[in-house]
Design a protein that fits this description.
Length: 569
């Protein structure tokens, strides 16, 4: 698929020079920092040296005082408290974090994960009924609840109080809970409005610890769960989230809880874990439980207190993950074939597909895979409990949440973010939804948005990539949204003569490239799925390459190599 290269606007000239001089770094590094919003020495210090002292006061969040007070009352009166969370990574890590911490200080506590298939997303009537039957007086909802106005009113009728901890966009009416913690509330001035659901749960525990004067050190072992949540939920890794991820990765690498240690072993992670490793190796395994069977399994693993139980549950979840992979590959193939065979679908600027038999647990993954092949806003729907329910994914720059909101009269419920959402509708509304969604996309998307883009931080020479430069770039970690791995381009580079196709079917390309054949400063690179370009590259034709940098260890030797994103002649 053809890609659009977009070079970022360089940072303000005066700011770059001032930062360059105050930090004692070269111009390129200063420019990369300014592009990321790091414009002063003090900001750079906090960026390169994250500190837990930089966490915000939890009581800056609207309703935090009410939430903490209600938990204190529950502890004092020994009321039964239910920790209620969604079945995905953010939800299950949230529940595990809050449950683990409260269990240290309070016995009358249990958790509840709704069933994806019989209850669906968010707060359910079945969950509230279960709470009432088992004499729970307080429910703390995590990663859900902000739109559960009717359900929370129902709980109130049954004498059950709610504390909502959510990070999704609120509707026009907030639920009548004792406290609604959501940094996206319009009347909430909390400095970081991009916390994950688990992040909001952590702030609640931090607030409780502060009020009760419990030692902050007790919260640090919870940061491994929080790092998994932040990475998997694709929230910006800036500000407070950067601090939490930085120390969460230290916890994960040095002293992970038994459940996460089991997942790392199963995933074959034997080096320092990165955000990327969490996204592709840890998160999918935790998610697999909720997709294939029950999110309860994930929580059981994450709160496991013996190695034996962690390994037992971990093995079960690993099998579920293999089942999940097979399901999502099969359904993706079906969906791709359906589009390829339909000129009408190919001509549209959105993809909306419905099939009663597709597995509900993997349709979000299928939506993402469809975008990899047909780069357009996508909604994948299946049947569940007599309704069409599904997942939506977007392309860069297009606000999917707004598009779905415009069709809200056709929906039973929906929720999510700019780039990902879930929705449910009557099956008879699917056709009208397809039409209305497509109309909105046609009228609100630009042609540029329909071409995948590679965002490039800077145009550099290969000779600029020195060991010192790479060491500084590594200190930009942890990478993630709003602080992505820097991507560079180098123009008119040449094959040094050692490039070759690699892989089982020679589908990949191992590169050795130089700025100038006469200089011989050779850089190694790997270009996945670009083996077909070998004849042209080896013919001596100059080409432009865009790439990020990574460390590659081979036979005990460590070198910096180019992780190639695209090549243009």
């Amino acid at each position: 698929m053809e890609k659009r290269w977009v070079i970022n606007e360089p940072g303000d000239e005066g700011t770059v020079i001032t930062l360059m001089e105050s930090l004692g770094v070269d111009r390129l590094v200063a420019d990369l920092l300014v592009q990321r919003g790091i414009t002063t020495f003090e900001m750079a210090k906090k960026f390169f040296r994250p500190s837990l002292d930089d966490l915000h006061d939890p009581f800056l969040m609207k309703d935090m005082d009410k939430a903490v007070e209600r938990i204190e009352t529950a502890i004092q009166k020994q009321e039964r408290v239910m920790i209620y969370g969604d079945y995905d990574v953010d939800g299950t890590t949230s529940v595990s974090l809050v449950y683990t911490y409260l269990k240290k200080h309070f016995d009358f506590i249990d958790y509840y994960i709704p069933d994806r298939y019989s209850e669906g997303y968010g707060v359910s009537t079945a969950g509230i009924d279960y709470a009432a039957e088992n004499n729970f007086r307080l429910i703390i909802s995590l990663d859900c609840g902000i739109k559960a106005v009717g359900k929370i009113a129902y709980a109130k009728e049954k004498g059950i109080d709610f504390i909502v901890c959510d990070h999704h966009t609120p509707g026009d009416i907030l639920p009548e809970a004792v406290a609604v913690l959501d940094p996206k509330r319009l009347d909430c001035d909390y400095p970081c409005d991009a916390l994950s659901g688990c992040g909001v749960g952590f702030k609640l525990m931090q607030g409780l610890a502060q009020k009760k004067e419990w030692p902050f050190e007790e919260l640090i072992p919870l940061l491994d769960l929080l790092a998994v949540s932040i990475a998997s939920d694709i929230v910006p890794i800036t500000g407070e989230n950067r601090v939490l991820t930085y120390f969460g990765l230290i916890q994960l690498n040095n002293s992970p809880r038994l459940g996460l240690k089991t997942i790392l072993n199963l995933a074959g992670v034997d080096k320092d874990l990165t955000v990327n490793d969490i996204v592709f190796k840890v998160g999918p395994r935790i998610n697999a439980a909720g997709r294939i069977q029950s999110g309860n399994r994930a929580v059981q693993l994450l709160i496991a207190d013996t190695e034996e139980s962690a390994i037992l549950i971990g093995d079960t979840i690993d099998v579920m993950n293999e089942d999940r992979k097979e399901l999502d590959h099969n359904i993706t193939d079906e969906a791709l074939e359906r589009v390829a065979k339909s000129n009408a679908l190919l001509a549209k600027k959105s993809t909306v597909l419905f099939d009663r038999n597709w597995h509900k647990g993997v349709i979000g993954i299928v939506a993402s895979r469809m975008i990899e092949n047909y780069y357009k806003p996508t909604v994948i729907l299946t049947e569940s409990n007599g309704f069409a329910t599904g997942s939506a994914r977007s392309v860069d720059g297009f606000d999917l949440y707004n598009a779905i909101s415009e069709c809200s009269d056709l929906l039973e419920n929906f929720g999510g973010h700019k780039y990902a959402a879930g929705l449910t509708m009557k099956i008879e509304n699917v056709g009208e939804f397809q039409k209305r969604f497509e109309d909105y996309v046609v009228n609100n998307i630009s042609e540029d948005m329909l071409v995948p883009q590679v965002k490039i931080d800077a145009n550099i020479k290969l000779s600029d990539i020195t060991p010192k430069f790479f060491r500084i770039i590594k200190q930009f970690e942890p990478f993630g949204p709003k602080n992505m791995t820097p991507v560079f381009m180098s123009e008119q580079v040449l094959d040094y003569g050692y490039s070759r196709p690699v892989g089982r079917n020679k589908e990949h390309l191992k590169l050795s490239v130089v700025d100038d054949i006469r200089e011989g400063d050779v850089k190694a690179g790997i270009a996945f799925s670009m083996g077909n370009l070998y004849p042209k590259i080896s013919s001596g034709v100059p080409f432009d390459v865009c790439y990020s940098l990574q460390e590659n260890e081979y036979m005990g030797k460590v070198e910096t190599q180019l992780m190639v994103r695209d090549i243009k002649f």
